[in-house]
Amino acid sequence: MSAPETFDAFVPSTISDLLSRANFKARYIPLSSLRSLDLENKFKPSYDLMRKVDSDAVLNHCLRCYYFSLLILHSGFPSNTPGVRQITRDELFKRVFLTSVLHDVALSHHESVLNHPAHGTSVELQGGIMAYEHLLEKYPSPSLSSSDVGDVAQGIMLHSTHFSNGTSSAANILITISAFFDLSGYGAWSHDVLDNVLHRDSVREIEAAFPRGNIAGEFVHDITEILEEKPNCLLCHIPSSFLEKVKAVKNLADSH
């Protein structure tokens, strides 16, 4: 089943409002149908950067986020809403890939991250800055437009932030949903609210292809360390129960 040719470029920033706007119905889509080797090859420098600076567990987390986002786009994500600007499928898939793959680029102890001038900021802000620099260097116009680069960088900077109102770009809300889902499961917001959004059999396939490894242990350790070092960082605003949810998830397909 193919995704729509266009999607709403801007959607509600709150999950409840997003779910009420769209007619989500979780659909089983094989991983083989979600993959786009042309897209992955075109933006291989971004994948290579993540392999250089991050662990296999973090890289797999980023790749799962990409495929979860595509799965959401195949399952009823808002499209052709009257009065809402549209973004083409190809344009959105490109932004989703880059945002997903690069969103944890600064969650690393690699010297290029530790010595970066933005290391004194929150990890999401540094990640957005590093991604911005990387995208401008590796994909000069017309490969990526200023809107592409800005959307990817902003999505990375804000992906851990929950808003109570307002509007997000499609790529931005997708990285928020997929990242929190990958770490804390189907109960990331409230009990099984994502069951109509992400088909459990597809999730099982994606997780098998990109194993979790010790992602829970790494994230709990890294986030705890970040909160001790920077008590005012953006991560200090995540729900207090978040780390316990992360520890509890053994596999996503069976989570609640």
Record the SSE blueprint.
Elements (H helix, E strand, L loop, with lengths): L5 E3 L1 E3 L2 H7 L9 H4 L2 H6 L1 H10 L2 H18 L12 E3 H14 L8 H4 L8 H16 L7 H13 L8 E3 H15 L15 H10 L5 H15 L12 H7 L8
Helix pairs in contact: 5-6, 5-10, 5-11, 6-9, 6-10, 8-9, 9-10
Largest sheet: 2 strands, antiparallel
Rg calc: 17 Å
Unreliable runs: none
CATH fold group = Hypothetical protein af1432
Counted up, domains total 1
Structural class: mainly alpha
Supply the CATH architecture. Answer: Orthogonal Bundle
List keywords for this structure.
single chain; 256 residues; mainly alpha; Hypothetical protein af1432; two-stranded antiparallel ribbon; 54% helix; globular; HD domain-containing protein
Describe this structure in words.
The chain has one domain (6-248): Hypothetical protein af1432. The mean pLDDT is 93. The chain has 256 residues and is mostly helical. The longest helix has 18 residues, at 56-73. The two termini are 27 Å apart. The strands form two sheets. A two-stranded antiparallel ribbon has the order 1-3. The relative contact order is 0.17. The protein is globular, with a radius of gyration of 17 Å. 54% of the residues lie in helices and 5% in strands. It comes from Dendrothele bispora (strain CBS 962.96).
